[in-house]
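Give me structure tokens for this 229-residue protein.
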Amino acid sequence: MPDDPVFLITGASSGIGAATARQAAAAGYRLVLAARSTDKLETLVSELGGPARAIAVTTDVTRWADNEALVDAGVRAFGRLDVAFANAGFGARRGWLQETPEHWHDMVLTNVLGAAYTARAAIPALRSSRGHLLLTGSVAGRRVLPGSLYSCTKWAITAMGEALRGDLNGTGIRTTVIEPGAVETPFFDNPGEGRLDAEDVARAVMYAVSQPAHVDVNEILVRPVAQEG
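Here you go.
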């Protein structure tokens, strides 16, 4: 339907982003899907009903202009924006000497500045719809992982969610930080047991956005039963 709500997702080409796109589509949302991998996005767009229901926008969230163009593309295509999910990010091995400085640089820019840019770009459209802004944090943003700069970036996301909530108070925009534990996604190089599926995290996202307009679920910390930390 032309008035169906619109859900924007960064990091949508795989993992939590793609799983959330599928569940949001099933719930009746039209989708604005962003990632650096255009081919995977276009495959997902086809799966979700084609350009009448979803669009793919090649996006590097570390570039402000890309974030502006992403939101503009969604509003031009569908006329509105109701949910923005700043989900793009990646990790690094633990140990202060384990990754290259270049890897650190790109990770911090993507995980922290990228999320901030996406939020900033989406806020004007979300004000109009009294919409919902979500950020992907982590259990690593609630407890410090020794030797993990990735953990530091997710602590920044925890703080960012609260900073945004305070700033947006009175606008009608809701804010949620989704904080997964170990998830079976391309984030990990090897499959493992005792992890969440991306679909488990997507259900947490959909729980937050499905609440009545006066209810704001600020944080969801979701871990597999087997996870100790």
